[in-house]
Amino acid sequence: MSDLPAHLATLEAEAIEILREGVAEARNPVLLFSGGKDSTVLAQLALRAFYPSPPPLPLLHIDSTWEFADVLAFRDAFARQHGFRLLVHANEEGRAQSLNPFDHGDVYTTLMRTEPLKQALRDGGYDVIFGGARRDEEATRAKERIVSVRSASQSWEPRSQRPELWRCFNWQRAPGETIRAFPLSNWTEHDLWHWILQRGVDLVPLYLARERPVVMRGGLRIVVDDPRRMRWLPGEQARLEKVRFRTLGCWPVTAAEASHADTLPAVVQATRGAQTSERAGRLGDRGSLERQKREGYF
Question: Angle formed by the axes of helices 6-25 and 189-199, to 10°?
């Protein structure tokens, strides 16, 4: 018997089934790991799916070079604690050219996230790539299948995706094609947090409200994670404010929200009344997410 509420037990069982089926169909699987809540839950489900065996697939993190310090520390500790092989890939040429989200916008996202992801997948020869995306996060993601076909260039074409009637998944791949599989597709943000609470999952502390140094940019709260790399505006100063994150990306373009939810039960309660998409605070998503997906992002 599961100790989870019935709907969470169903979602957990579905995700575990997808992980087991995908790994069985794969020649060389990998799990994309950002250190955020979704990929952490997916990795925890992989541990449950294959217990007591060691994880049969590595974690792959694409380091944009502008990650939150807490995310990097959590990533390394998580992999070490749970016996995952951790692979980290970054665009070193872009790092040397000082590409950054302040000055380079979509170009930065393409060169520091999309292109190194595609390169890492090509170099590793991965054929089934598991990711933690959910359909309720953002309208573009709602178009995705659970088992999503990518071309030889890692591009996504919505019209080429296969029907998934009665949860029948087609893992077949033409030469050069790969699969992006999303076992959390049917989970909502509230489902995810409720499962985290029920299973006692540890997360990076940025999801809990704490006093953090904040500057206001375009009405959004940007936490100054590294003051030495911050692009300060004339007369600008950070002030301490109690904030938390609903989603995590590159710290200069990921907004926090004012919050007093400093415990997991409080976060679960806060998600019940959320009126906006959790990715609404991702400045880099605005107007370009579907284009990024077609180019190979996620």
Answer: 90
Which one has a higher pLDDT value, 240 or 135?
240
Spell out the domains of the chain, with CATH numbers in brackets. Answer: 6-192+287-295 (3.40.50.620), 204-284 (no CATH)
CA distance 51 to 248: 29
3-state DSSP helix/strand/coil percent for the chain, to nearest 5?
A: 45, 15, 40
Tell me how crowded residue 23 is: count the other CB atoms within 10 A of its CB.
19
Helix (H) or strand (E) holding 32: strand 29-32
Chain length of the chain: 298
The CA distances from residue 96 to 63, 64, 67, 77, 93, in Å, are 14, 12, 16, 27, 5
Helices (H) and strands (E) in the chain, counts: 9, 10
The model carries a pTM of: 0.90
For tokens 């997991």, the residue is 264
pLDDT one-digit tens code per residue, 181-221? 999 999 999 999 999 999 999 999 999 999 999 999 888 99
Whether residue 41 contacts residue 78, with contact meaning beta carbons closer than 8 Å, is answered with: no
What is the rounded CA–CA span in Å between residue 250 and residue 62?
A: 11
CA distance 223 to 219: 13
Q: Give the number of C-alpha atoms closer than 13 A to the C-alpha of residue 169, restricted to the C-beta side.
A: 21
CA-to-CA separations, 163 to 144, 168, 188, in angstroms, rounded: 11, 8, 21
Instruction: Check if the beta carbon of residue 198 is closer than 8 Å to that of residue 3.
Output: yes
